[in-house]
Design a protein that fits this description.
This protein has about 160 residues and is α+β, with helices and mostly antiparallel strands. The protein is built from four helices and nine strands. The strands form two sheets. A seven-stranded mixed sheet has the order 1-4-5-6-7-9-8, sandwiched between helices. It is globular, with a radius of gyration of 15 Å.
Length: about 160
């Protein structure tokens, strides 16, 4: 397979919208750092040989750091997420960011494992952040992976050079 990484800005907006709809219900992401329309964020997509999106990452460059807003991969365990993380880390470094930050939910044990294996450290817990986000985005379920109540957010941080 000859997967390729492209800027999500180079893709038809309807393809990106369909990807978010399939994974999140819509492109609106509500987290403790803000409400984001993921369709409007910078990011990268990993495309397969048929030019279908198989993984997608979005991020925001802030003053001295980069915040990853979303990362989704259709096929787990084949390196798609790692390729996109590496691309964002390179972009952040080129933009003189000293850190990359991201937020995940308390139930997302796979994400916690994934990011920690790549050098991200647990930084902060935002208690009741998901409960509060649910007031804005009512589609957020009350229970997440493994039947764990979806309540808090966890911030992870990686220092980059």
């Amino acid at each position: 397979m000859n997967n390729k990484i492209v800027s999500n800005r180079s893709l038809e907006k309807k393809l990106v919208s369909a990807f978010f709809k399939r994974h999140w219900g819509n492109s609106k992401m509500v987290i403790s750092t803000g409400t984001y329309g993921c369709n409007d964020l910078d990011g990268y997509a990993l495309l397969n040989d048929s030019n279908e999106i198989i993984a997608l990452i979005t991020y925001v460059l802030k003053e001295s750091y980069c915040e990853i807003i979303s990362l989704d991969s259709i096929i787990k365990g084949e390196g798609s997420g790692s390729k996109l993380i590496n691309k964002v880390e390179k972009t952040a470094s080129e933009n003189r960011c000293s850190q990359i930050r991201l937020i995940t939910t308390n139930d997302n044990l796979n994400a916690l494992r994934f990011y920690q294996k790549r050098g991200y450290r647990l930084e902060k817990i935002y208690k009741n952040a998901v409960t509060n986000a649910r007031k804005i985005k009512k589609e957020i379920p009350k229970f997440g992976y493994h039947g764990i109540p979806l309540v808090d957010e966890i911030e992870l941080v990686k220092t980059i050079k």
